[in-house]
Amino acid sequence: MRPAVRALAAATAALITVGGLLPTAQAAEQPGAVEQARATLAEHGVATAPLDPVVEAAVDGAVADAQAAGEQARGAIDDAAAGAVAGISDAATDAGFTGGPAPGVAYELVQDPYGEGPNYHWSTDPLDQVLAGKLPGSGPVLHRAPGSYFDAAPVPPEAVDAAERGHALMGAGTPIYVSDDSMCTLTAVGTDAQGRKVGLTAGHCGEVGEPVYSADALGVGAAGTVVAKDAEYDYAVVELGSNTELTDNYGGVKVNGVGTMNAGLGTQLCKQGVATGYTCGTTWLAQPGFAITQVCAGAGDSGAPVLQDGRVVGSVTGGMLPFYEISCRTPLQGPLFMPTLVSPIAPAVDSLNRTDASRPGSGFTAYRR
């Protein structure tokens, strides 16, 4: 078994064990799981030889068991949340309360002037509060990415200030839209050899020529354009417009440039993304071109900066397994979610800097104030 596939199987087994949900029976064989994982790795330049049919069936079965365990866990979470909500509802009914926030709780929903838009929704629903890891009645939660139950961070005050000047503040961790419907996160920002302002994000977030908007400053219009992308290292270059300002501290996440990922088995890495916020997790496997980690990430976190010792060392590429059902969607999952694939940033920047000096992004230098 090749190391990458062996690591995939080990990560899957560890995922199940850590979550405490050991499958009681081998799930029905699901042909294609290994092939899909192999295809994912191939997209990142990792070649894996065909497995022995017996081994492949075992891995497929383990993945199926992990999927079933994840579905059971999600059902248990939903049931527990529903039970908590029912208890609150019964208590409220007994107290004569008929609707609105929990008894005795006064909510003040402050609408961020530049935050309202697609996927920007405040909720006082008790179930949403529980799934966000908060007590029912503890206050509103903000949803910013489809499928995520995390309580998202609102638009940072400094981004609101910039928007009032007609500018989009751009930094590592800024949520973006590419074209009309692709929600991602900026990995890093800086300038290139020609002095142009540029940003980096995951290559699969959009196509060359598509406009890029800050999800925290939609009112200022397009803030940049995808001008280049590289499938091997999964990065895209965004040339930022004159209506942008750069920062090395976005939403309280301070970065000290970009650097090489120094990770191995057990190393902790952290990330900042729009869907699941700031989270940290253990590294299962680190290779020159990719890393497999237990950093929580979900749809919308693609491109999110992966941080180590204050530097951006990689970006979130996607989930390691082909099952959305067991992605990281609520903090109640703990470590029970599929591993996350991370692309190191150093090889991507080196590749970018080897291109023609006139190409946008070539000679990239991360912004530092």
How would the blueprint of this fold be written?
Blueprint: H1 3-19, H2 33-42, H3 53-94, E1 121-123, H4 126-131, E2 141-143, H5 157-164, E3 168-170, E4 175-178, E5 182-185, E6 188-191, E7 197-202, E8 211-214, E9 224-230, E10 235-240, E11 244-246, E12 249-250, E13 253-254, E14 268-273, E15 277-287, E16 290-293, E17 305-308, E18 311-319, E19 340-344, H6 345-353, E20 365-366
Parallel strand pairs: 3-11
Antiparallel strand pairs: 1-2, 4-5, 4-8, 6-7, 6-20, 7-10, 8-9, 9-10, 12-13, 14-15, 14-17, 15-16, 16-19, 17-18, 18-19
Helix pairs in contact: 1-3
Task: Characterise this structure.
- The protein has 369 residues and is of the alpha+beta class.
- Helix content is 25%, strand content 25%.
- The chain has helices spanning 3-19, 33-42, 53-94, 126-131, 157-164, 345-353; strands spanning 121-123, 141-143, 168-170, 175-178, 182-185, 188-191, 197-202, 211-214, 224-230, 235-240, 244-246, 249-250, 253-254, 268-273, 277-287, 290-293, 305-308, 311-319, 340-344, 365-366.
- The chain has an eight-stranded antiparallel β-sheet with strand order 5-4-8-9-10-7-6-20, with no helix packed on it.
- A hairpin with a 3-residue loop joins strand 4 (175-178) and strand 5 (182-185).
- Helix 1 runs parallel beside helix 3.
- The chain is globular and about 55 Å long.
- Residues 1-31 and 95-101 have low confidence and may be disordered.
